[in-house]
Amino acid sequence: MRRLPGRWPAARLLMAAWLTLMLAACGDSDEPEVPASAEPPAVEVAGPATAVIQQDDAYYDELRARWFALEHAERSAAASPGSHNADPEQAPLSAEPEPVSELPVAVLEPESTPAIGIIIDDLGHSLSRGRRIIALPAPVALAILPHTQAAQLLASEAAVAGKTVILHQPMENGAALAIGPGGLYADMDRAKLEQTLQANLNNFVPIQGVNNHMGSRLTSDRQAMDWVMQVLAARGLFFIDSRTSAATQAAFAAEAAGVRHLSRDVFLDNERTFEAIDAAFQHALTLARKQGSALIIGHPYPQTLEYLEQRLPELQREEGVKVVSLEALLARKYRN
Ligand SMILES: [Zn+2]
């Protein structure tokens, strides 16, 4: 069928996106672009200049591992003082009610198939790794950091592929670690916090929801969480609490503001080995069978990507559990 110019705006947008993609791909590589000994960027200073800083993927992998070690050390200490269990996934969560276990599975889903949702955080620095998430044969969501070099391109390509895109909103942690451009801090007044959040939400499109990057300090600040949720409510966005602190107030604030929300059940790759990732994934499957659904957050480590690429194609046939979109998980929770 002949395409009529002007009658196929979506197709033309798609073509433009692909052209941009091809051009950008020339500069995207897994090869390190700076020496391993290079100093990290001054990511705590927000601004357009930081968005174009080139760093290799290994640098971000190491930085992320340090974030996790510190955030989880704090969370484990807060959640279970004296616990001998070194695995944060096994540490008890707070007394917050589990949102997904209130109704029997048979009522939630006609086919009563246990479901998992998967979010990959910290995207936006590497086009190639983001593309591997988009290419996964399941509705895995992309959580993209604001003001990163590949943010808009990944969001556009994900949308074309039918994948959910959420803003991975940097929030202050308890260890005073840099959180990158667009960060929200507990000492911000309401106007400054809203201005920063709105700028992040306007940084790329589309955005269907928000989850927190780090945030062990800010998510435990109810006032700040109320301000955040009121912005999300006005925009009709949902919130996913990454749960980097047992003291998080995010779900309560979301509830109060009428923002649909879910909480992370399992971190997939606290430890970057096949065995550890597989154990965490199995734990999520067990939770899904018990609760009806479970929500996993992972990161764009090579080991995580390889695991998902191997595991997802046959997941439903092998395990009887299916991967569903965040919207589908929310629909299960808020149906009725
Ligand atoms: Zn993150």
From TrEMBL:
Gene Ontology BP term (one): carbohydrate metabolic process
Annotated stretches, region: Disordered: 78-99
Residues that span the membrane, as ranges: none
Cleavable signal peptide: 1-24
Database matches in SUPFAM superfamilies: Glycoside hydrolase/deacetylase
Keywords in alphabetical order: Signal
Protein name per its UniProtKB record: Uncharacterized conserved protein YibQ, putative polysaccharide deacetylase 2 family
Organism for this UniProt entry: Halopseudomonas bauzanensis
